[in-house]
Each structure stands twice: as structure tokens, then as C-alpha cells.
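Entries read chain and fold; for instance:
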Amino acid sequence: MTTIGIIGAGHIGSQVARKAVELGYDVVISNSRGPETLAELVAELGAHARAATPAEAAAEGDFAVVTVPLRSYHDIPVKPLEGKIVIDTNNYYWERDGRIPELDTGEATTSGLLQKHLPTSKVAKGFNHIMAKEITADGTPAGTENRRALATASDYPEAAELVAKLYDEFGFDTVNIGMLDESWRAERDRPAYVIRQNAAELKDNLAKATRTI
């Protein structure tokens, strides 16, 4: 049984956990406040989920989903994620995170910052341009006409392939943007952000994106 370590139990993290458990994954989920604060969520998720610390979730997951506010990415444990694929859901909300000059100038990407923090992991962008509630509501079987599509990006093909596999299981087509340097195309305030689009429409919207807002 594949175990997903989820670091961050907010809107996105909890919805990914719900869908993953429904699909038969085991989930180890964590937040910054301690496992005891997740008792209600874990009770809802059932026997295939348990609460843990971020370090435990990182260590026990066959791969991980990091879904914490960008300002907290330095707190993600490094060693337990060594050699693992890490799916990053982040966007840059300067009102929440404070100003990050290299993002303001377009010299870096949010997922690139996480990859730099996790040099021995394989970071891929995922689940960052969909509303949390739609993760469990909008999926449809493969081949469905006008199936919704989501984007990914990674410097590691195997990481992007894992995201594509997970997307398909969750009910979404995939558009691979390419390297993490291009992952900004699916982020906040750009044409592909939090709208329902099929693969062709997503490709068009990614192409329309401009580097700085």
C-alpha cells in the first residue's frame, strides 16, 4: 500500500487526504500545531489515515505533499524527504507571506525555492491552481469529454509522471509545463489560475501568462 505524507492540513492538504483515502492510499498527515489538533480530521478519514508530526509524515510517506504557507517552507524537514518526490502546492501570496524579492522580480519560482531548500528531493508542482473543494468534486473518469486538466512542472521527469498519475486517479488530465523555472505560469493571478479548463484550454492559458504581474 502506498503511503502519502502530507505536510500541511489546511484546505488543500485535507482535501488531498480525503481523495487519497477514498482511492485506497494510506495517509500520514501533519500540521504545525501538533497531531492532537487533527483528531477530528483523522476520525473522518478513517483507518487509512493517522496524524503525525511533519518529520514523521515526511519519513513515513513514499512521497510527500507539501501544502504550507510559503513563508513556512524553510520549516519543511529536509533529511526525511531525501530521495523522495515532493509535490508542492504553493502560490505566492505576498499579503500573507511578506515580500520575497526574487519572486517579485521573476528570478525564482515558489517550487524552485522549495527545491533549493530540499536539494536531495525531487520537487514537482501540483494542485496549486484549483480551489480546494474542487479537488474532490470536479474529477471525472479518463476519456470524459471536456475533462478538467491541471498543470505540473518538475526538473525530474519521474516526479512529473507521479503527479500525472495522481491527477488521473483524482479525475484530471495533466499538462506538463516543463521545468520548475516555468512553473510560475500556473500560479496566482495568471490566466490558468483557479478556473475550470480542459487540457487544450490550459495549454493556451499557460502560454498567455506573463512573467511578472
The longest strand covers residues 173-178. The radius of gyration is 16 Å.
